[in-house]
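dumping this here before i forget
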Amino acid sequence: MKTWTLLLILLLLSLNHVSGAPWDDQAVDSTSYGIIRESHGEGDGKYWIFRPSRPGRYPVVVFIHGWAATEPLFYMAWIRHLVGRGNIVVYPRYQNLLDTGSENFTDNSAEALKDALMRIGNEYSGELFLIGHSAGGS
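structure:
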């Protein structure tokens, strides 16, 4: 059991440090879903904004990830679905893998959301939804 736990941790650490990940280097989704994506911040203060490429005013969905799912890669099908239905998705990284204490998760997410809403500006319709998976939903 210890071996599997160690392998899982090593896998997650390697995913967190992949250089040139498309989430940071591309502004527009290359899969033709019509998604504009941005990343801001660093470490446990990093967050992503995914928005429809068509100008407009949209509800914001705050997607709180599960334990150690620090990259939106884990949820891209869900994010594409939400953006394709006319929502802006904010994906805060509330933890930088296992080096962030759980007492900081809520504050990290709230700070990311506050900053994201300022960046979104007039595209925000005033409707806000929260969704979470695993640790992000508790």
